[in-house]
User: Fold this.
Amino acid sequence: QVQLVESGGGVVQAGGSLRLSCTASGFIFRINGMGWYLQAPGKQRELVANITSGGRTTYADSVKGRFTISRDNAKNTVYLLMDNLKPDDTAVYFCNAGIKLARNPWGSEKDYWGQGTQVTVSS
Assistant:
C-alpha cells in the first residue's frame, strides 16, 4: 500500500512564497517521475511541474521562472518552491508519483496521488 501526503499549503499575500512538500510511503521499490498538479473548482487537473528520477524538470508556462520543483530521493519526497505568488495561482495542489511496488518490481509503474493541499493567494 502506497500513500502520498502533501503539506505546506496555506494563505499568502500576492508576491509571497510557499513551499509544498509531498512524501511517499509504503512498500516501494522505485519512484520514477514525481510532479505537482493544480485543480481549480469545476476545472480539470493541470500539470504544474514534473521532475524525473534523473532530475530533469518540466514546468507549465504560467509558472516558469517563479516555481522550482526538486526531490530528495532518500526521503521519497518532492518539493515545490513557489515564489512571487499571484492570485491566479490559487487552487488545490496535488502531488503525483509514478511508483513500482516492491511486490512487483518487474512490472510497470502506476500513478499515485496525494489528497491535495489548498493554496490561496490574496490580492
Q: What stands out?
A: DSSP finds no helices and eleven strands in the chain. The longest strand covers residues 28-39. The radius of gyration is 14 Å.
